[in-house]
From TrEMBL:
The keyword Transmembrane applies. This is Facilitated glucose transporter. It comes from Mycobacterium spongiae. The chain crosses the membrane at residues 21-47, 53-71, 80-99, 111-132. It comes from the Bacteria. Keywords: Membrane, Transmembrane, Transmembrane helix.
Amino acid sequence: MTETKSRVASGREIEATDPAIRLVVLALLAVDGVLSALAGGLLLPIYIGSTPFPISALISGLVNAALVWAAGRWTTSARVAALPLWMWLLTVAAMSFGGPADDVILGGQGLLAYGPLVLILLGVGPPAVVLWRSRAHG
């Protein structure tokens, strides 16, 4: 049996595990960032009555914050901890381009024209706060 040792990095204790396990966990968190972007973008045009209600943007931002926090528990690098957020941003960017028949996921008229901006602001804000706080305290 191998002994599990802990190492201290940036003022917090990180359990020494197999690097392959860390890689798999971080890759799964990155895939979760993609899923968060897809869910947030596809559920963005939800209405309450006749008024658009983009609650999925806020939920996506909170999920992103949890993903970045979880990634921060598996790495000491803030850049690597931001991997779910980077994947989320890449997915949102891909959704903003037209598809084969010029179908656009993020778009609309009236208030929904501002939906992508709301999605980006609410999707990036909470995880940015998590990254800033972890960097300030670490």
